[in-house]
Design goal:
Blueprint lengths: L9 H4 L4 H18 L3 H17 L13 H14 L8 H26 L2
Helix pairs in contact: 3-5, 4-5
Length: 118
C-alpha cells in the first residue's frame, strides 16, 4: 500500500523564507519595545534618528563593513551636545545610553539596507 500525503493548502506551497519571517518578527519586536521606552529615551531616539537620517546615504561610513569606532564615538558626542543634561543621571551615563541607542539604530539601518540589496 502506497503512503500518499494529501495535497498541501496553497498558502503552504510557497511559504515565506524563514529569514523574512524572522526579520518581520524582529522589526515588530523593536517597534513594540520602542513604544514602551521611557519618555526621555524616546526623545534621545528621535534626535538620533534625525541625525542619522541626514547622513543615511549608501556611501555613509555607517554602512562600512567595520565602521570606525572613533567616528562613531564622535557622532555620539555630537548627539550628546544636542541633548540637554538630565538632572537625575550623570553626563557619563547619558553618554553611554546615547551610544548604545546609536549603535542599535545603526545596526537596524544596516539590516534594512542589507535586506533591500538582496
Amino acid at each position: 500500500m502506497e503512503n500518499r500525503r494529501p495535497p498541501l493548502p496553497y498558502f503552504m506551497t510557497y511559504p515565506l523564507p524563514e529569514d523574512s519571517i524572522n526579520a518581520m518578527d524582529r522589526r515588530n519586536d523593536r517597534e513594540y519595545f520602542r513604544q514602551i521606552y521611557p519618555r526621555e529615551v524616546k526623545r534621545y531616539i528621535r534626535i538620533i534618528v534625525e541625525v542619522l537620517d541626514r547622513m543615511d546615504i549608501k556611501e555613509s561610513y555607517i554602512y562600512d563593513e567595520y565602521p570606525d569606532k572613533v567616528r562613531l564615538e564622535r557622532l555620539s558626542d555630537t548627539i550628546l551636545r544636542l541633548i540637554p543634561l538630565e538632572k537625575n543621571i550623570s553626563r557619563e551615563t547619558q553618554k553611554n545610553l546615547i551610544r548604545v541607542l546609536l549603535w542599535e539604530e545603526i545596526v537596524e539601518r544596516r539590516d534594512r539596507n542589507r535586506s533591500r540589496n538582496r
